[in-house]
Amino acid sequence: MLKGKVAVVTRSTHGAGLGIACRLAAGGVDLAINGSDDSMAAEILREDISNTYGIRVAFSPADVSEPCGSEMLINDVNHMLGRVDILINNVGVQHVAAENEFPVEQWNSTIARNLTAVFFTTRAVLPQMFERDWGRIINVASMHGPVATANRAAYVATAHGVVGLTKFIALETAASGITCNAICPDLLIVDRLEKLTGAIATMDQIELAEAGARLPYEGNQPHGPRRDRLGHLARFLCSDAAACLNGVTLPVDDRWFP
Description:
Layout: E1 6-9, H1 15-26, E2 30-34, H2 39-53, E3 57-60, H3 67-81, E4 86-90, H4 104-132, E5 135-140, H5 153-172, E6 178-185, H6 190-204, H7 208-213, H8 228-238, E7 249-252
Parallel strand pairs: 1-2, 1-4, 2-3, 4-5, 5-6, 6-7
Helix pairs in contact: 1-8, 3-4, 4-5
């Protein structure tokens, strides 16, 4: 059903974004990957995905946290692949610190990368989706969209913001063939877990083992971090079978939510 469509996945040269991109590629979707990787590494990845799945793949290094970067990304894809049918906004930058110690520059950077980027890329791609009366926008938020944990002011705020923006875009597109939904995953990437553990250990001046026990995720993910679930769900949300789902926030969290 999706063969021949064109998808853009932001921050997709590694981790969960790459997993989503590859799952769409497996369904015959032509792909634009995006990231800050050096040109040689990006070209190797681009060729590998193209050869593996037999699709067209483009790469754009555009920084979507800036308006001009979002416009550049969509213009690049229009030029290289002809159109954009599917937009996956993949976010997730975070910094761990108490509210009264949270660096202002980290707040501004996280807001720009996690929330403002979603606004800019969606704004850039919507006109052509309205012209064709078809489009899929999926915002990868976080389990912190519906809930919150301590010491992550900017991350929690942006996750909540992405969920709210998703509902707003869904209302804006309700009379069209465009849908906008949010996926709220649990902790997906093990190396992120390690970074968070280290940050907590440094902040509280405790051992890594004790810091790991303080993580809000501890004991809440019986199946452990898994990258593949998002790709399957994203592919379903892009299909005609999900055409009636709009403005929905879907947890991919094992049993995190009450």
